[in-house]
From TrEMBL:
<keyword id="KW-0808">Transferase</keyword>
<keyword id="KW-0489">Methyltransferase</keyword>
<dbReference type="InterPro" id="IPR029028">
    <property type="entry name" value="Alpha/beta_knot_MTases"/>
</dbReference>
<dbReference type="GO" id="GO:0070475">
    <property type="term" value="P:rRNA base methylation"/>
</dbReference>
<protein>
    <recommendedName>
        <fullName>Ribosomal RNA small subunit methyltransferase E</fullName>
        <ecNumber>2.1.1.193</ecNumber>
    </recommendedName>
</protein>
<dbReference type="Pfam" id="PF04452">
    <property type="entry name" value="Methyltrans_RNA"/>
</dbReference>
<dbReference type="InterPro" id="IPR015947">
    <property type="entry name" value="PUA-like_sf"/>
</dbReference>
<dbReference type="GO" id="GO:0070042">
    <property type="term" value="F:rRNA (uridine-N3-)-methyltransferase activity"/>
</dbReference>
<dbReference type="Pfam" id="PF20260">
    <property type="entry name" value="PUA_4"/>
</dbReference>
<comment type="function">
    <text>Specifically methylates the N3 position of the uracil ring of uridine 1498 (m3U1498) in 16S rRNA. Acts on the fully assembled 30S ribosomal subunit.</text>
</comment>
<dbReference type="InterPro" id="IPR006700">
    <property type="entry name" value="RsmE"/>
</dbReference>
<dbReference type="GO" id="GO:0005737">
    <property type="term" value="C:cytoplasm"/>
</dbReference>
<dbReference type="InterPro" id="IPR046887">
    <property type="entry name" value="RsmE_PUA-like"/>
</dbReference>
<comment type="similarity">
    <text>Belongs to the RNA methyltransferase RsmE family.</text>
</comment>
<keyword id="KW-0963">Cytoplasm</keyword>
<feature type="domain" description="Ribosomal RNA small subunit methyltransferase E PUA-like">
    <location>
        <begin position="20"/>
        <end position="66"/>
    </location>
</feature>
<keyword id="KW-0698">rRNA processing</keyword>
Length: 231
């Protein structure tokens, strides 16, 4: 990935002017030491990569002008990961690595035995920053959607859920013929009986590893397997 790539929270268009502010401005001017007239790249997380140059830099914003844009088509084969809410540091790690691995969407939902019931606004803001950082670092042009929801909503999609049940089919086997799948990762304390019953009714059980994994490890591992199988 080029070191001079920056994120714009707007759809990019050719021959348009944009302003870089806040953390991206700090990264541009204080970390990367970019200056007026420097050539840079812009991404919007929607499939566009723009070649641009810095027209001016002020204290609170930098004006950049787009010269050309390359657009990428989104992969029709895709995977999403649904994670029972974890402590913030574990969520940040999982979100960062799943972005690098190419996840289409990341769901975070409260499970009965979750470490935390709700995701604070502070944590949500930090997760957004991790998304942006991983988007730029990985060279991706599409940023995953980050959705806070309930398990019942996740189960309206085609889902696999990971479990240590001995007769469960390996995730690698189940993914061979899939185009669009969501993999559900439960809390480290396990599923409540009511949740397990619902999962068995609505989703397909799969085996990720014969060992007991931490939730963030399970999320990243399932993402790595899905990325290899689907992309």
């Amino acid at each position: 990935m080029p070191h001079n790539r920056f994120y714009i929270d707007k759809a990019l268009n050719e021959h348009s002017t944009y302003f870089i502010e806040d953390e991206e401005l700090h990264h541009m001017t204080r970390v990367m030491r970019q200056k007026k007239n420097d050539e840079i790249e812009l991404v919007d997380g929607k499939g566009s990569l723009a070649k641009a140059h810095i027209a001016s830099i002020e204290k609170k914003k930098a004006e950049v002008k787009v010269a050309s844009i390359t657009k990428e088509k989104e992969n029709t084969r895709k995977f999403s990961i649904a994670i029972a809410n974890l402590k913030p540091s574990s969520l940040e790690l999982a979100v960062e690595k799943l972005t690098e691995l190419g996840a289409f969407e990341i769901f975070i939902f409260p499970a009965i035995y979750s470490e935390k019931e709700h995701v604070s606004n502070h944590t949500k803001n930090r997760l957004e920053r991790h998304l942006i950082s991983a988007l730029k670092q990985s060279g991706r042009l599409f940023m995953p959607k980050l959705t806070y929801t309930e398990l019942t909503e996740v189960l309206k999609r085609k889902c696999f859920f990971c479990d240590l049940q001995k007769n469960a089919t390996k995730l690698t086997t189940l993914l061979e013929k899939e185009e669009d799948i969501t993999i559900i990762i439960g809390p480290e304390s396990g599923w409540h009986e009511k949740e397990k019953k619902l999962l068995l009714e609505k989703a397909t059980i799969c085996l990720l590893s014969p060992n007991t994994l931490r939730a963030e490890t399970a999320a990243i591992t399932s993402g790595a397997i899905a990325s290899q199988m689907l992309y």
